[in-house]
From TrEMBL:
DNA-binding keyword on record: yes
Lineage: superkingdom: Bacteria
HTH cro/C1-type domain span: 42-85
Origin organism lineage: Bacteria, Pseudomonadati, Bacteroidota, Flavobacteriia, Flavobacteriales
Matches recorded under InterPro entries: Cro/C1-type_HTH (IPR001387), Lambda_DNA-bd_dom_sf (IPR010982), TransReg_Diox_bact_type (IPR050807)
UniProt-recorded name of the protein: Transcriptional regulator
Any GO MF annotation of the entry: DNA binding
The keyword DNA-binding appears for this protein: yes
Length: 100
């Protein structure tokens, strides 16, 4: 099988289109992508539990619009609120890791 020399890895593609790691544009992209992933994870967990946004909000002591904004890429979220949504609202546990 012949290799296509024009194929790029995802990292190479992002480097070319967004910028290399460490640049302001790339850092902003990475930050926004992390917020997007968090919103998707919350939404998926909520749906797996069979909860509406309103039900999750009530369990977590917040409001539906906050859950909606979180699932749609809310950039600033208090850690204590995130913990409440995950622990009390979803009945789940938050795991955090740091990659260097």
């Amino acid at each position: 099988m012949e290799k296509n020399k024009n194929l790029k890895s995802l990292d190479q593609f992002i480097d070319d289109k967004i910028g290399k790691r460490g640049t302001e544009t790339r850092e902003e992209f990475e930050s926004e992508y992390d917020a997007f992933k968090l919103g998707i994870l919350i939404q998926k967990a909520r749906e797996e539990k069979g909860l509406t946004q309103e039900q999750l909000a009530e369990l977590a002591g917040t409001n539906k619009s906050y859950i909606s904004r979180l699932e749609r890429n809310l950039k600033d979220i208090r850690f204590s609120t995130l913990q409440r949504i995950i622990n009390e609202g979803l009945g789940a546990h938050l795991e955090i890791s740091i990659r260097l």
